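Appendix B. One record, verbatim.
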Amino acid sequence: MNCHSIRLRGPWNLHTEADGATGNRRVTLPERWETLLEDAAGLVVLSRRFNCPTGLGETDQVSLLLPQLPTHNIRVLLNDGEIHPEATPQDGYRFEITQQLEPANRLTIELNRTDPDTLSTHEVFEGAVIEIQSNA
């Protein structure tokens, strides 16, 4: 079995809320969560677009990996449809996305900062990884 990885490092759009005000900015990863989240309270949304990997075979499996998230209070959407992880190991989340892929895709990660005590912000967010497993 062959495995190929594509890192989605940037640019990402970052939408934050702090004291009733909202902010939007573009970020490139990797970046420390404490820098990304700053004084945000409430909903934090990271989003970016990516194209479907080319040359996929009928038996290829495509997964989305999200390592180092600072909270378990997340929601992940692919093309505006919520996706659910296959597993939530300590080092991140894995989502099977083969069937949800379109020629052009939008990935959205929503973090809820309503309980900041549960967040671990000292880690570095490397970005998302698209992993292609092929039997060829």
